[in-house]
Backbone:
């Protein structure tokens, strides 16, 4: 078994490899895409070709056979380079539902294609307009019809549908009124978007960040029963098992983005001369940068702990939730520090600060609100009464 020290040594090689790739996609690349609201096709293709997006897929299916900690280092380095890791991170972890809960036939059918980059699994359909974070209250319904399911309903804030071949979809297969526990009666499906045609309608939602976000309507969409993952009615558990990995990886990219902001703030504070001295000499500039750095390092330690626990088979999500919470708060602080350090120049798109500022702000409320993280920890870690 690989030791922590050996993995950390391997992480340095990972960082160097990712850093070399990202150097080909400078701030100007991301700024231009942001202005045009375009997807980073070339960047994602380069990551795919170099195997960085398939590291969590076992070697027997053509992947890298690495762990969530290793994957987190990849996303962290993308963020530190100034890249937008959120544009492609789902390709890493969404396949985990198939890996952990799919049949042998499904694993053989999908995982090698995903690992090879021939099949894009970037879309993840859970959130609904009327349910929000109350996932058990979703109303999208998949009705069994012989060897198929007929899906009707709506999802919202679904990213990258236009850049996916399949969507991982959570839908009710038993009405909520007919189940004993509200978490029962939910099932997971792999939806082939290439064959959906007019049965899926997309309404793109314009947001403050360059992520292709949609409202998705399902109108009598036919999904083969062979594309259901695991047992009917057990989908909520399957989805939850993947959310811990998601939160560790989101924490990782936020840590990277935070350090990008610190790196830029330090460089600017050293070179900017006002009143005949470097602004970095001023403690009013120094202290906020130093504090943001300290908080990011602390968030990284919690990310490391959460990732190691996950890779060792831990199923409880307290550490993953805490990692996401700390990383999002620290990254947001770092982004504000970078803006303040740069002054008016921070608002100029060519510096790359204002884009990252917008991107990390999203993490305070998604993929899970930090208030819900605290509520979860209060109940499940501290034993306080359930608040929702």
Residues:
């Amino acid at each position: 078994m690989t030791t922590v020290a050996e993995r950390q040594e391997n992480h340095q090689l990972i960082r160097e490899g990712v850093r070399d790739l990202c150097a080909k996609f400078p701030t100007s690349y991301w700024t231009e895409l942001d202005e045009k609201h375009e997807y980073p096709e070339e960047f994602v293709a380069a990551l795919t070709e170099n195997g960085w997006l398939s590291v969590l897929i076992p070697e027997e299916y053509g992947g890298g056979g690495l762990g969530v900690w290793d994957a987190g280092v990849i996303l962290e380095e993308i963020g530190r380079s100034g890249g937008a890791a959120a544009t492609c991170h789902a390709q890493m972890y969404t396949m985990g539902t198939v890996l952990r809960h799919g049949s042998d036939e499904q694993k053989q059918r999908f995982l090698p294609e995903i690992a090879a980059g021939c099949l894009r699994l970037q879309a993840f359909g859970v959130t609904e307009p009327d349910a929000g974070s109350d996932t058990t209250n979703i109303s999208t319904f998949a009705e069994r019809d012989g060897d198929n399911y007929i899906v009707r309903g709506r999802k919202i804030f679904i990213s990258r549908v236009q850049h996916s071949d399949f969507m991982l979809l959570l839908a009710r297969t038993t009405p909520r009124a007919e189940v004993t526990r509200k978490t029962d009666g939910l099932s997971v499906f792999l939806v082939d978007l290439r064959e959906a045609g007019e049965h899926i309608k997309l309404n793109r939602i314009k947001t403050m960040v360059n992520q292709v976000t949609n409202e998705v309507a399902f109108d009598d969409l036919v999904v083969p029963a062979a594309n259901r993952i695991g047992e009917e009615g057990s989908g909520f558990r399957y989805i939850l098992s993947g959310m811990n990995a998601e939160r560790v990886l989101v924490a990782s990219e936020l840590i990277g983005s935070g350090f990008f902001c610190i790196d830029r703030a330090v460089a600017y504070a050293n070179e900017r001369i006002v009143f005949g001295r470097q602004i970095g000499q001023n403690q009013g500039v120094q202290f906020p940068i130093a504090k943001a750095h300290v908080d990011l390092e602390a968030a990284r330690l919690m990310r490391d702990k959460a990732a190691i626990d996950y890779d060792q088979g831990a199923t409880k999500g307290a550490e993953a939730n805490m990692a996401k919470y700390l990383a999002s708060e620290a990254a947001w602080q770092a982004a504000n520090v970078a803006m303040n350090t740069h002054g008016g120049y921070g608002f100029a798109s060519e510096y790359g600060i204002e884009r990252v500022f917008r991107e990390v702000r999203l993490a305070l409320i998604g993929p899970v609100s930090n208030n819900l993280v605290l509520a979860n920890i209060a109940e499940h870690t501290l034993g306080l009464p359930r608040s929702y």
